[in-house]
Amino acid sequence: MNDMKNRLTIALMLANLLLGVSHVSWADKNPETPQFWLDSGINAIEAAEKLTSNKKYAKNVILFVGDGMGISTITAARILEGQTLPDNRGGEEHSLSFERLPYVALSKTYSANQQTPDSAPTMTAIITGVKTNDGELSVDGTVRHQEKSAEVINAHKLKTLLEQAEEKGLSTGVVSTARITHATPAACYAHTSGRDWESDADVPAGVGINDIARQLVDFPYGNGLEVVLGGGREKFLPNTQPDPEDTDKKGSRKDGLDLTQQWLNHHPKSVYVYNKAGFDAIDARQVDHLLGLFERSHMHYEHDRPNDKGGEPSLTEMTAKAIEILSRNKKGYFLMVEAGRIDQAHHEGNAFRALTDTVELSNAVRKALEKTDNRNTLIIVTADHSHTFTIAGYPERGNPILGLVKEPGEVNLAKDKNGNPYTTLSYANGPGYRAATSPLALTNEETMHPDFLQASAVPLARETHAADDVVIFATGPKAYLFHGVQEQTYIYQVMAKALKFKPGR
Ligand SMILES: [Zn+2]
Q1: 443 found inside a domain
Q2: How far is the CA of 330 from the centre of ligand 1 (A)?
Q3: 96 Cβ contact list (under 8 Å, min separation 6)
Q4: Is 319 a member of any domain?
Q5: Distance from the alpha carbon of residue 298 to the mean position of ligand 1, in angstroms
Q6: Does the model's pTM come out above 0.85?
């Protein structure tokens, strides 16, 4: 077999010489011979034939959500990380940790009233099994957006998987790099017709229900969430109290409540931390309830995290700590982990931060796979919705993914109709719009800078979500149920099935 491979490699090199292919490319460094592809295909088939469906019930479920992580985001992040690896063959061949999970399905993300959804109805679909309207969290679609009546809202609450888990005596946690009161984490524990009602200062007069932060601290099921880690401190602190990190700024609550103190009062053996030092000092064996709020608003992008004044844990570190605390419960646990800022970087038209936050999500999933038992833990990785992000042109293998398009065998960059070079990555809309007559030609140095905004076709202040399907990756008990093209609500059904919960009850 090896002889055969060598002979083919040599044959290919000779063919290249005869054809006058002279440039040093990925193929010269690590030849992808015909036999290489046939062998890797055979290996993939062998691995697929060995797959057996784990039909047992799960003890634990971990749900990872990459907010706004459409398929093009995953592909570009895979190449970006791949191009940093010493033995890469261009980077395209690399896989993020969760791309190696054995089961995959597609998820249809439209909401009850919108073709292209926002994070409130999509997370409601994932965590309750029911689609609802944009802007609404874990209430059904008969409730109007920003409905004020407590009676109406309470009559149409949807039971979340996290609430069911608490009722059954499991431990539960939510982790996010966004404000913990932001749509994706909030759909797990709050019920509201207005996703923006994060503190009482955000709630308009006449609304009969509590704000989202208050709903988290007053959570009525089981013994409350065991782990809450993310950003959004201002939503928990009164507007008279200075922030512990940004001491020149205050909380935003008008009702005078310090909800971090209420959290401590509610729970025995509980801890509240707001910086990296406090986080690192936590002994997971001693703490039953952990609240960590590491920024006044959203936490930093992974790229900017080292610059934080008070210090912040990474998504990977928060995931590891959450698993350590939750796994002490013999009955099991449910944990939701959100990479919340992939979405926000895309809205800013900034691919670099969206992709580096996606790579950090891959790190967090890898850590979770290491720290759990695949036989009893269902791990799901998905997105709530996509973005208008594209990977286009005909760049050669190994062309820097953040760079300008250079086609195979060409010395010069590819040019558009106006004679200007263009990037592989772009958006259908957003703030990176440049007039067609823009006189300055871009350089790779500019486009690969972390702050570069990729070009967009339609000028908008903020880039928008997109309506294309997103991927569901899974491993562990009942993971084999993920197949085909499914409604987003199917994710809830598989999690409920795996934990033996009655859907909707
Ligand atoms: Zn968004």
Answers
A1: no
A2: 37
A3: 74, 77, 78, 81, 358, 359, 362, 365
A4: yes
A5: 13
A6: yes
Q: What is the pLDDT of residue 435?
A: 76
Query: 119 an active-site residue?
Result: yes
Grouped pLDDT means (10 residues each) for the chain, 505 residues: 40 39 52 92 97 97 98 98 95 98 98 97 98 98 97 98 98 98 98 98 97 98 98 98 95 98 96 98 97 98 94 98 98 98 98 98 98 98 98 97 97 93 97 78 94 96 98 98 98 98 93
Q: Calculate how far, in angstroms, residue 118's C-alpha sits from the geometric centre of ligand 1.
A: 6
Q: Is 240 exposed, middle or buried (0-12, 13-18, 19+ CB in 10 A)?
A: exposed
In a domain, 444, yes or no: no
Strands 389-391 and 377-383: unpaired
123 Cα to the center of ligand 1, angstroms: 12
Q: What is the CA(54)–ligand 1 centre distance, in A?
A: 35
DSSP for 389-431 reads EEE-S-PPTT--TTSB---TT-SSPPB-TTS-B-BSEEEEEET
Closest CA to 108 of 121, 95, 93, 99: 121
Residue 378 sits in a domain whose CATH number is 3.40.720.10
Domain range enclosing 106: 61-388+464-498
Q: How far is the CA of 135 from the centre of ligand 1 (A)?
A: 11
Confidence (pLDDT) at 440: 72
Among the options 119, 138, 252, 314, which is catalytic? 119
Q: How many separate domains does the chain show?
A: 1
pLDDT at 149: 98
